Amino acid sequence: MTIHLRADRAVFRFSGPDAHKLLNDVVTGPIPAEGEVAAAWALLSPQGKILAEGLAGHAPDGIWVDVHQSVADDFFKRMKMYRLRAQAVIDDLRETHRVGFAQDEEPSGIRHTDRQGPLAMGWRTIAPVEETAGWVQNDDFYQTERISVGIAHQGNDYPANDAFAHDVGLDILEGIDFAKGCYVGQEVVSRMKHRGTARRRPVIVSGIVAPAGSAVSCGGRDAGTIGQVADGMAVAILRLDRITDPAAVTIDGRPVQLSLPVWAEYGFGDAVAED
After folding, report:
1. Closest by Cα among 158, 144, 152, 159 to 232
2. CB contact at 8 A, 240 and 212
3. Is pTM, for the whole model, over 0.90?
4. Of 52, 136, 159, 199, which residue is most buried, by most CB within 10 angstroms?
5. What is the dihedral of CA 238, 241, 246, 251, to 10 degrees?
6. What secondary structure letter does DSSP report for 145?
7. Cα separations (Å) of 249 from 33, 62, 144?
8. Where do runs of H (alpha helix) occur along 34-139?
């Protein structure tokens, strides 16, 4: 079995009688109970911007989540603040555990389907550091896989407090539970859903000869920037209304190709409602 180390992910475990309620009351996603499949989620600011995001999966000893290393300290601090008097323990496992990705067969130990809505790319596995020596010690394969299907990741493609949940497609990828009650930033998420004010969406860009962060231009107007580049491809969070001619898009003056993820429910040139 081949497992690819995802060294940029930090691991936390939530346990105790109120662990599920704590997470479910604070983040966007449908936090799974025992026996349910893993789900995407995001922790938002009161203004609706993503502060952390990842996958949540249940295991016998708690709910396991992963976030990008760049936001791990802030995530831990905020979740301890939200815990208040809840009977929940938050374990910071950054020093003792690692996250990996497997695709060819289901791994043993702590593993969850790496699922984003209709997409099931493989498995997220979590293991103690001493058990990861045989893993492939880079995440090149994982990054290429998720970029090829248009999955944007915080830290790789956009910074903290920069994107709304709709901007990265969490409303389509089942990373937002629209049926549950309030959570931090819920009013903004609800307003964007009901008013149709999502102005940016993930787009797959290929044929890139430029670094991450380069601007995507169409007709002389910037539509957004590209994220991490792998094999000449990247996910860009773009203003769809500015992509009036997908065949005339450039980065640094060079033509590139755009395509929509297979899960997209939007199109190039889509107009957006005004707030």
Report:
1. 144
2. no
3. yes
4. 52
5. -40
6. H
7. 44, 46, 22
8. 72-83
Task: Select from 176, 154, 171 the least CA-distant residue to 41.
Answer: 176
Which tokens is 235 given? 């996910």
DSSP letters spanning 163-225? -BTGGGTTTTTT---TTS---TTHHHHHHHHHHT---EEEEEEES--S-TTPEEEETTEEEEE
Helix (H) or strand (E) holding 97: strand 97-102
The count of other CB atoms within 10 Å of the CB of residue 48 is: 22
Number of other CB atoms surrounding residue 72 within 10 Å: 20
**H-state helical runs in 38-124:** 72-83
Structure tokens at 144: 């290429």
Grouping H, G, I as helix, E, B as strand and the rest as coil, residue 258 is strand
Query: What type of residue sits at position 137?
Result: Q
CA dihedral 184, 186, 188, 193 (to 10 degrees): 150
CA distances to 159, 160, 205, 262 from 53, in Å: 11, 9, 22, 22
Per-residue pLDDT tens listing for the chain (275 residues): 899 999 999 999 999 999 999 999 999 999 998 888 899 999 999 999 999 999 999 998 999 999 999 999 999 999 999 999 899 999 999 999 999 999 988 999 999 998 788 888 999 999 999 999 999 999 999 999 999 999 999 999 999 999 999 999 999 999 999 998 899 999 999 999 888 878 899 999 999 999 999 999 998 899 999 999 999 999 999 999 999 999 999 999 999 999 999 999 999 987 665 44
Q: Are strands 97-102 and 119-128 parallel, antiparallel or unpaired?
A: antiparallel
Q: Assess contact for 271 and 220: CB atoms under 8 A.
A: no
